[in-house]
Amino acid sequence: MAYMSQEGYEKLVAELQRLESIERPKASAAIADARDKGDLSENSEYDAAKEAQAKLENKINEMKNLLANAKIIDTTRLSSDSVQILTKVEMTNLTTKAKMAYTIVSENEANLKEGKISITTPIAQGLLNHKVGDEVEIKIPRGTIKLRIDSISI
Q: Which pTM value belongs to this model?
């Protein structure tokens, strides 16, 4: 089961529709164009177009599976008492004094540029269920960081 926000679900649906209505016909057209170029046994364009179509179909099937197993989280039932999925956490790195803020989201909604980190990351896992004022030590690939949770919001 994949937990996600309503916004994340809607983005996924829109991307699936784009792939099915725009990218799939493009892939079929590329195969038809390559087929028109003659002998298929030595036609690298045809092979490449077929491979691209197979990758596209796999992606479409994965997205359909994800949507079929999606569980949309009701944000009205969330609490900002402790860190959980879909909460925004503002914290301070106690070593560098750097301030940072992340929203914890499902894996498919993660986007570091938007400040959204996956619930499966070491930082998110280390923050889960902690409260404002808690100081947590989290093991990350580069070592251990010590963070203080400054605020939690939804």
A: 0.72
